[in-house]
Amino acid sequence: MTYHIRVRAGAVIIQNQSILLVEFTNERGVHYNLPGGGVDPHESIRDTVRREAMEEACADVDVGPLAFVYEYAPHLSSYRFGDTHTISFFFESKLKNGSVPKYPDYPDPYQTGVKWIPLSELDHIVLFPNIKKQIIEYSLKKRNIVWISEDELEEAYFKTQPKK
User: Fold this and answer.
1) What pLDDT does 35 receive?
2) CA dist list (Å): 40 to 11, 60, 66, 81, 82
3) What residue spans of 2-121 are helical by DSSP H?
């Protein structure tokens, strides 16, 4: 599929001073991503977060407020990750009671694990996007952005004014 701008969404799951990450291994070595992926047609961004957390980490999550927005603009980044302009929304998420993340039965290509990485060890891994500094800052001082979805708002009605 061709996109002018591709929309992605992911989960920021921090628990006990560790963050849940998805591990991948390819020809360049081991790297990690936050659980996340592309928004499907007829799917809300929050639904994408829930689906991707389940697909990639078997994690049943409650999606909270928006934590980060990340833009990959190929023309500004020497096309290092391809030529698709991408906006990613990462939401603070909490594991639902009883949910225990694990490696999925049908992992993504090159996926090799699901791991809790201590925040104190983030500097020792490769993370895409490389938002390690922002994750540490976020864990210390959360500054959420409220996500507003039209379907959650009270419907507004216009009253017609009599013509004079």
Assistant:
1) 98
2) 16, 19, 19, 21, 20
3) 45-57
DSSP 8-state class, residue 145: B
Start-to-end CA distance of the chain, whole Å, equals: 53
Instruction: Give the distance between the most distant pair of CA atoms in the chain.
Output: 74
Tens digit of each residue's pLDDT (9 = 90 or more) over 94-122? 999 999 999 999 999 999 999 999 999 99
The residue ranges of the chain whose pLDDT is under 50 are none
Extract the tokens encoding 62.
Answer: 């409650």
- Write phi, then psi, for 60 (nearest 5 degrees): -90, 115
Query: Nearest Cα to 31, choosing from 102, 81, 92?
Result: 81
Calpha distance 13→15 (Å, rounded): 7
pTM: 0.89
DSSP 27-52: TTEEEEE-SEEEPPTT--HHHHHHHH
CA dihedral 18, 54, 68, 4 (to 10 degrees): 150
Are 66 and 45 in contact by the 8 Å Cβ rule? The answer is: no
Residues with Cβ within 8 Å of residue 161, at least 6 apart in sequence? none
